[in-house]
Design goal:
The radius of gyration is 18 Å and the shape is globular. A 7-stranded mixed β-sheet has the order 3-4-2-5-1-6-7, with helices on both faces. By secondary structure, the chain is of the alpha/beta class. It is built from 10 helices and 7 strands. It has a single domain, classed as 3-Layer(aba) Sandwich (Rossmann fold), CATH 3.40.50.300. The protein starts with a helix and ends in a 19-residue tail after the last helix. About 35% of the residues lie in helices and about 15% in strands. It binds adenosine-5'-triphosphate and magnesium ion (MG).
């Protein structure tokens, strides 16, 4: 039985438990670049079009967040790649890492996380000190040091003020958040944004957890813009491309960082 089959087997036998993160996933980020397969780039462009369509005819800055039910479904990967894809138009794009418990965007982009969102929300620093330009066509605000109260910081007025200041300058603000079925941080943001995009990972996400996440989002009155099936092997005509893509990025063994999510970041 292959690793992939093993995962399905676990899900069928423990429908309420998430499958273990496939071991083939490696830590090296899967970032879009000019060498990425055509089908993958097109898939992100299709997502870009659909997000615009789902947000609708809104004037000014469009703000949306990326979330999922449990860890390791590909939120950060999706957020960074969408920032790259939106940045390929003439739009001004800002990517914010609002996962202050387990920040990772700085690692994906190879930048420092000494100052970030948590600092500006706590009033410790000024905006211009924490926004970094990236070579990928978008700006980025890293998460900053983990604060003791991430959900409260995101809920409070300074966060509204921050987004309204930023929306005067940017065309799109993309916010990476923690998983909804594990911590409530994302729910604190839903009323401040135009919608939420939910990522689901093939052979990993579990129906019950996804249902729980959707109920929580709906209860918080979130506008769900759509779902992204991440790490899909695809089928039919696109299978070959998707398979190659998957193969290229998944060969390293020993990945185990996301097998459990009882503790998310430093918190229980
Ligand atoms: N489509 C993909 N193909 C291969 N590897 C992927 C893919 N999507 C994500 N990964 C890998 O899976 C791991 C988890 O992805 P990512 O960090 O994007 O998930 P996450 O939902 O943000 O996790 P967390 O909840 O812990 O923040 C990373 O090592 C990433 O490189
Ligand atoms: Mg993440």
């Amino acid at each position: 039985m292959s690793r992939k089959d093993n995962n399905i087997y676990e899900q069928i036998n423990n429908p309420n438990e998430p499958a273990k993160a496939p071991k083939r996933h490696r830590r090296k980020p899967v970032l879009l670049n000019e060498m990425s397969p055509f089908a993958v780039k097109e898939a992100y462009k299709a997502v870009r079009a659909n997000i615009n369509f789902a947000i609708g005819a809104k004037k000014g800055c469009k703000i949306f967040l990326i979330t999922s039910s449990v860890p390791a479904e590909g939120k950060t990967t999706t957020a960074v790649n969408l920032a790259i894809t939106f940045g390929q138009t003439d739009a001004k794009v800002l990517l914010i890492d609002a996962d202050m418990r387990k920040s990772s965007i700085h690692r994906y982009l190879g930048i420092k996380n000494t100052l970030g969102l948590s600092d500006v929300l706590s009033g410790y620093t000024q905006l211009n000190e924490i926004i970094k330009k990236t070579p990928h066509g978008f700006d980025c605000m890293t998460a900053g040091p983990t604060p003791p109260n991430p959900a409260e910081l995101l809920l409070a007025q300074p966060c509204d003020d921050l987004l309204s200041t930023l929306s005067e300058y940017y065309d799109y603000i993309i916010i990476d958040t923690p998983p909804v079925a594990v911590v409530s941080d994302c729910l604190a943001l839903v009323e401040k944004v135009d919608g939420a995009v939910v990522t689901v990972r093939e052979y990993y996400s579990v129906h019950d957890q996804l249902k729980k996440a959707i109920s929580a989002l709906k209860f918080a009155d979130a506008k769900i813009l759509g779902f992204i099936l991440n790490d899909s092997k695809g089928n039919g005509r696109t299978y070959k491309y998707r398979y190659r893509y998957s193969y290229r990025y998944n060969y390293r063994k020993g990945y185990s960082g996301y097998d459990y999510y009882d503790n998310y970041g430093d918190y229980e």
